[in-house]
TrEMBL record, chain A:
<keyword id="KW-0375">Hydrogen ion transport</keyword>
<dbReference type="InterPro" id="IPR002146">
    <property type="entry name" value="ATP_synth_b/b'su_bac/chlpt"/>
</dbReference>
<keyword id="KW-0813">Transport</keyword>
<comment type="function">
    <text>F(1)F(0) ATP synthase produces ATP from ADP in the presence of a proton or sodium gradient. F-type ATPases consist of two structural domains, F(1) containing the extramembraneous catalytic core and F(0) containing the membrane proton channel, linked together by a central stalk and a peripheral stalk. During catalysis, ATP synthesis in the catalytic domain of F(1) is coupled via a rotary mechanism of the central stalk subunits to proton translocation.</text>
</comment>
<feature type="coiled-coil region">
    <location>
        <begin position="36"/>
        <end position="95"/>
    </location>
</feature>
<feature type="transmembrane region" description="Helical">
    <location>
        <begin position="12"/>
        <end position="32"/>
    </location>
</feature>
<keyword id="KW-1003">Cell membrane</keyword>
<dbReference type="GO" id="GO:0012505">
    <property type="term" value="C:endomembrane system"/>
</dbReference>
<keyword id="KW-0066">ATP synthesis</keyword>
UniProtKB/TrEMBL annotation, chain B:
<keyword id="KW-0406">Ion transport</keyword>
<dbReference type="InterPro" id="IPR045083">
    <property type="entry name" value="ATP_synth_F0_asu_bact/mt"/>
</dbReference>
<protein>
    <recommendedName>
        <fullName>ATP synthase subunit a</fullName>
    </recommendedName>
</protein>
<keyword id="KW-0732">Signal</keyword>
<keyword id="KW-0472">Membrane</keyword>
<keyword id="KW-0812">Transmembrane</keyword>
<keyword id="KW-1133">Transmembrane helix</keyword>
<keyword id="KW-0375">Hydrogen ion transport</keyword>
<keyword id="KW-0066">ATP synthesis</keyword>
Amino acid sequence: MDQLLHDFSPGLFFMQAIILLILIVLMRKFAWKPILDSLQSREDGIQNALDSAEKAKLEMQNLQADNQKLLQEARAEREEMLKEAREMKNKMIEDAKSEAEGQANKMIAQAQAAIEGEKKAALAELKNHVAGISLEIAEKVMRTELSNKDKQLQLVETMLAEKSLN
Amino acid sequence: MVVAKKSINFIAVLVLALFSISSYGDDAQHKPGNKVDTAEEINEYIAHHLKDSHDFHFYTHNESGTHYSFPLPVIVWTSNGLKTFMSSEFHHDDAGKVIVNKDDTKLVKLHSKIYELESGASSINFDEDHHATNAHKVLDFSITKSVFGMLLTGILMLLGFGALARGYKKGKTIPKGFSRVLEPLVIYVRDEIAKPNIGEKKYRKFMGFLLTVFFFIWILNLLGLTPLGFNVTGQIAVTACLALFTVVIYMFSGTKDFWAHTLWMPGVPYILRPILAVIELVGFVIIKPFSLLIRLFANITAGHFVVMSLIALTITLKASFGPVVSTGMSLALSLFIMVIEILVAFLQAFIFTMLSSLFIGMAVEEHDDHH
């Protein structure tokens, strides 16, 4: 201990204090401050880069999910549209078919009515014609029959006979 | 850290290679012209090395007694005011024989300390304990070898870390070259020492001190392992000053909570509180800084002592084992200890910084839970 105290040099202590103080001040100003600041900013930069990469990854995932969803929706819509079109097609065919059928039926009915009309007209004409011919024949017959008195009498007699039969 | 480790290994090999060569040359430093070859002389030589010195000595040529060294400025505050001269005026004398006369102020150098002779005395006298009777120590602000080492370390740090800082300023986010080694070390101190002990919120304010002290101690410890023979962190004045800085910092940054817990511990019977306050205060003001300064000083001094003693084995064991065996043993053992010393150099810097930040952490801690 005595030796230690003897070896202790106050002058050296003083010089050391001054040197250390100046060194701390200089090192702080010219070395530690810029070094620590740069390290800090670099580490912050790295952290930021990592964070933004993570964020970008998440965004990417979201985007992909969105895309998937959109795709799904588009597919569903297409399906829907196809279905609708198919239905429409069927309906149109159905409609056309029924309309055509109605039209056809109507035409057939018209044709039938026309045929009926024509038939009636033809029959009436035929009747008239036949009646005319009959009258003509009857007239001719009558004329020939009644040209003599015998015959007229004979007729009256037949007719009367027929009458009595009734 | 891998890069740092590699470079440390490289430095270690270099240091070992140079240290063993220069130590032979150094042997004769104390008594020029004479070889250091007895146990007493070796002990004296080691003790001399462990002290601070006023000139920068490389080695002495035995036959001619020529010193290869350069002088450093001596600045002393004597009873007649400030005196400055170069240490070469002492002519490598360390026994108080050469008297430097500066305006009637007679100065001598004795065991690396400068003494002022009392007026009228023409040479230094000793009592039986080898204490000077007619001279007193002066306040010595000299640029000694330790101060020189500290200035060198400061310049190295400013250059190295300044370059790293400038690299960032130029917009390069990844440092190049040697800065690439320094950057992980700074990050290591910040993430492994400061943040866990002081806390994420408050560590930034103390980084200037912690980083400076960490690299200051580490570089000085490593310089101490080079053949230049610095023993800066083995000077008790230096470690005391470092510890004092830590104390001042944690005392002045202590929160209200810290002082409340130190001086008037809540949740403890009132009678015990003053006793606890005394214990806590003694702990913070004396015991903690003392443990810091003694640990660093003792580790480094012991390291230097052991390495030098093992190198001296080549001389002390020569008589009993012959030159080859003693040199081989000395080489193997000192190599082994030297590798450990390189680890210790880092470890002591780490422990000093770690404990400093731990104490600062205690002082700035916020107690959420009131007991």
